[in-house]
Design a protein that fits this description.
The chain is α/β, with parallel strands linked by helices. Helix content is about 40%, strand content about 20%. Bound molecules: NADP nicotinamide-adenine-dinucleotide phosphate (NAP) and magnesium ion.
Length: about 475
């Protein structure tokens, strides 16, 4: 049993003023792992004040100083690889496979921030004027539980690259993961107050970050509903917002695709991170005349999929993060049944032998139409909806008939055709014939999947304000 009773403000681990504890429960066994002491509004204000003081000098650091800080953090994270992977498995129920990839992404976040700093011009000429790209101020970072330290690293590294200081509010369910990353960042010897982290509830700590006039910008990853609450509050003090929200990503398999490759890939895209991924490809769009072949391939692929103990290196689907999330996924499976979709594989209830944890049977629905709730709403679990189409035009229409627009997938054996289809999808990223992450390309959503972009130059510029100096001659 672990007790986490410190938050991190102004370069020190301190005891928060908040007195409420939150229990940390194992997603795999539902046994108690420990508890975390939650920060309150006063703690959050203190963290913001520390970041505000630190900004005065940190905003004036040179790019080479900031590159050194980024290198320091990266090397302290490198020393704790096994700890990062293990704590993500234990506390979040992330599979060993996902936790390992996630760990590599954490490191890559620092590499790409360093790359950016090596090439980005903070002073430009536009028209006749000098334009200085100035750090925006104190950034509030609010993140969910599904890749907690990954989000901390990508957002913090960009903030540091820009010369901004930060107050971070992770999910209280990620407290042990947070403790580990905080220890690493503490070891990196950043100037006091550049990095502050407050465990606590969204309605308390997150709300103060959204309200406080000394926060200049919020970088939020989470649900569309909470994103809207934050954006409404932020506008009162004209905070800039970057919102990375939900998705209902379409995966178009064109009729000329190699289905023996495209379908296993589609299952991987749907069930990545046990389905708890904003970019999961949860709507599989198949030509009508390929449905029977697709059904066989889906069943075959899923029969080899290991669901269970996230520690097992071969496990593909682990437990849902909480019983709340498990129940939410069950409710959606029931909704699909009520709406008249047909279960091809999976269904309600826990897989045999996994009754103690929050395990869901990977579930695939066929006979889904795009108006059903299971095709429109983000489920955030291993549930895939198969939708058939007659023509390429109809596939594009169905793909775009969504309130979301975060990511999409296209498979075809003709790369020109795939490119042409991909260019008509309203999504921030379209993956063609595979899945990968380009850390220098923008990431973010069209429509209700968010506002703004992360990564690459656009991601960096979201932490900067242009100041034009117009000198009379
Ligand atoms: P969530 O409920 O939106 O919570 C996200 C964060 O916001 C948490 O730290 C939460 O704190 C906090 N929060 C809650 N209410 C708040 C308020 N009134 N003011 C300020 N902050 C508040 O999301 P989640 O359930 O943790 O995560 C799943 C969601 O994240 C999914 O919808 C998924 O699509 C989205 N997501 C998006 C991306 C992306 O890059 N686009 C990536 C991953 C996940 P508490 O934990 O205390 O509630
Ligand atoms: Mg929440």
């Amino acid at each position: 049993m672990k007790t986490i009773d410190k938050i991190y403000i102004n370069g020190e681990f301190i005891t928060p003023q908040g007195t409420e504890y939150f229990d940390l429960i194992s997603p795999t066994t539902n046994k108690n792992l420990g508890k975390v002491l939650l920060g309150n509004t006063e703690d959050t204000k203190k963290a913001i004040e520390a970041a505000q003081n630190a900004f005065k000098t940190f905003s004036k650091t040179t790019t080479s100083e900031r590159i050194q800080y980024l290198k320091n953090i990266k090397s302290s994270i490198e020393k704790r690889k096994d700890d990062f992977i293990n704590v993500m498995i234990e506390e979040y129920g992330g599979t060993f496979q996902f936790a390992s990839v996630s760990y590599e992404y954490m490191l890559k976040g620092f590499d790409s921030a360093i790359n950016l700093l090596n090439s980005y011009n903070f002073i430009k000429t536009m028209g006749e004027s000098e334009v200085q790209m100035a750090p925006i101020g104190v950034v509030g970072i609010i993140i969910p539980w599904n890749s907690s330290n990954g989000f901390i690293c990508s957002k913090l590294s960009t903030a540091i690259a820009a010369g901004c200081t930060t107050v971070i509010k992770p999910s209280e369910m990620s407290a042990q993961q947070t403790q580990l990353i905080t220890e690493c960042i503490h070891e990196a010897n950043l100037p006091k107050g550049v990095f502050n982290i407050v465990n606590g509830l969204g309605e308390v700590v997150g709300a103060e970050i959204s309200r406080n006039p000394n926060i200049a910008k919020i970088s939020f990853t989470g649900s569309t509903n909470v994103g809207k609450i934050i954006a409404k509050e932020a506008v009162n003090t004209m905070k800039r917002v970057t919102l990375e929200l939900g998705g209902k990503s379409p995966n178009i398999i064109l009729d000329d695709a190699d289905f023996s490759k495209a379908i296993p890939l589609a299952i991987g895209a749907a069930f990545m991170n046990s389905g708890q991924a904003c970019i999961a490809g949860t709507r599989l769009l198949i030509p009508e005349n390929k449905l029977e072949e697709t059904k066989l391939l889906i069943k075959e692929t899923i029969s080899h999929l290991i669901v269970g103990d996230p520690k097992n290196p071969n496990t593909a689907v682990g437990p849902m993060v909480s019983t709340k999330q498990f129940n939410r996924v069950q409710d959606y499976i029931q909704t699909g049944i009520n709406e008249g979709a047909e279960i091809l594989t999976g269904g309600l209830g826990k897989p045999q032998g996994l009754e103690n944890g929050n395990f869901v049977k990977p579930t695939v629905f066929i006979k889904v139409n795009n108006q059903m709730r299971i095709a429109r709403e983000e489920i955030f679990g291993p549930v895939l909806s198969v939708i058939t189409y007659k023509t390429e035009e109809e596939a594009i229409e169905i793909a775009n008939d969504t309130t979301y627009g975060l990511q999409a997938y296209v498979s075809s054996s003709d790369s020109k055709r795939a490119h042409n289809v991909a260019s008509q999808i309203n999504a921030g990223r379209v993956q063609i014939n595979g899945i990968s992450h380009d850390p220098m390309a923008p990431f973010g959503g069209f429509k209700q999947s968010g506002i703004g972009r992360e990564f690459g130059i656009l991601g960096l510029e979201a932490y900067l304000e242009p100041r034009a100096l117009i000198q009379q001659k």
